[in-house]
Amino acid sequence: MEPKDKCLHFYNICYLFLICLFRSCTDILHCLIFTLVILSYVALGIVAWLHGDPRKMIHPTDSYGQFCGQKGTSNAKPILFYFNILKCTNPAVLINLHMIFVGLLISLAVSLVFILLLRFTAGLLLWTTIMAALLLLAYGMWYCSTVWSQLRYRQGSEVAILEVGLQTDLQIYLQLRQTWIIFLIEASIFLMLIFLRRRVLMAVTLLREASKAISYIMSTLFFPVITFILLTICISYWGFIAIYLASSGEAVYKVMSPDVSCPYVNSTCNPETFYRTNISNSALCLGSKCLFAFYGGETSYHRCLFLLQLSNLFVFLWLVNFSLALEQCTLAGTFASYYWAKRKPQDIPPCPLFLSFNRAIRYHTGSLAFGALILSVAQLFRIILEYLEQRLKCVDNTLSRFLLCCLKCCFWCLEKFLRYMNCNAYIMVAIYGKNFCTSAREAFFLLMRNAVRVAVLDRLTDFLLFLGKVLIAGGVGVVAFFFFTNKIPVIQEEVPSLNYYWVPILTVVIGAYLIAHSFFSIYAMCVDTLFLCFCDDLERNDGSSNKPYFMSPELHRILGKSNQIQ
What we know:
Blueprint: H1 3-22, H2 28-51, H3 55-58, H4 92-95, H5 98-151, H6 161-164, H7 171-174, H8 177-194, H9 197-216, H10 223-246, E1 250-256, E2 268-269, E3 289-296, H11 300-303, H12 305-339, H13 352-363, H14 365-391, H15 398-432, H16 436-448, H17 451-484, H18 502-540, H19 553-565
Antiparallel strand pairs: 1-2, 1-3
């Protein structure tokens, strides 16, 4: 190693050491609140476990509240058939098909190879798609203008969309000139974005750079396993609490009488003491019985069951969003260490994924919890609106349906915006170690100063990754279809006998799509991180010897060409 290279290497080590030395805990208050909520969540699980009995939801009961078909009870009749709902959830049905797992392993390998090959094929895929999109957009603009010109002479086509209002028949909107004008404008906007060749070229270079970064830090491809484990724990614990809370009611018995004039009908009773009371001996209540009615209760605990279920749902959303935020912040810190390395890959610190994970847990738990909390509140409101819509379906009120539709649309947009801003805020938290609000503000204004680049890069990245997911899931699905329908003569003996082959095929397709999504989410996070670092690099440095760029030579060449054109 030359003396100059040794100095640069020593400088990078000192820089990383100073970053870790002066990095401090952020959003401590939210970290403490998050810790208290987790402890309260554990306490809620204990309370639900003490009061609940899942058998109430699984097994049927007779008129006396006794479980049917269970050993040790008076209803244990060996000849009588009882339907066991647990057999529907038995995974052994799918496990016995060892070829489903083969298909999922194939999709995993193809996803990995696809991401690594994007380093060489991203440009070809994108430019081929862009040429196809140009042809489709040209045809779409011609068709929209043709239909609009035909509607000019049709009576009633000049009515505005707002005057028509919400209609279930979409053909009504297609008869309006304003609709086709909107389509024409949207096609023109997409066409303008496609002709931003330099921006597209920069996006392609960033996509290649992301694939290169992943190839240098292959450990990032295995981090979704940790996220999967965390999400599995969250979902299992939420289901555990939900089931035990739903089954924590006590058996409630009501007086049932053949004579409707009995004054004690539907009143609460105790079957053990019922026949020692005067109710059954009353002249109006002869033949009355104390029978099981439902599970419930009149205690304060039973009256708060709905609020406890709502709390269970909210904390579950918070924990899920925190797990995803931890993954995003960890990956962002890892890929940022790649970008800010002067020489790639020599100056990338050892074990960058572990170092980034350690920083995220040690210093930024509060920031991640704060961002996850904001997103969880928006998601909870969306779920409440869905619940209200289901309850108000029987009410024929156009105004209420319209307001609910508007609120659902607003909260859907809010959730998408918060999810996008949280992701970029976590990137800034991972890079500079500031609190959540400061990082979100800096990320927002940095994106606004590069709005055109953001629009082009986001659309191209989303489309490329979606295309990759569809190709992988569709390809594996086609292979699964030929296999399970005995269309491959070489391995016909390995095909199990199936009554309905679409079940394993759909299982393979859905599993392949989810596997591809987990891999491509890493790639998308890498692209977003490198893009923010790139924009920040442009603003902090000027390419001089005193302030050199940290970007790769490929990005530097693209930037130089763009500056020459501008």
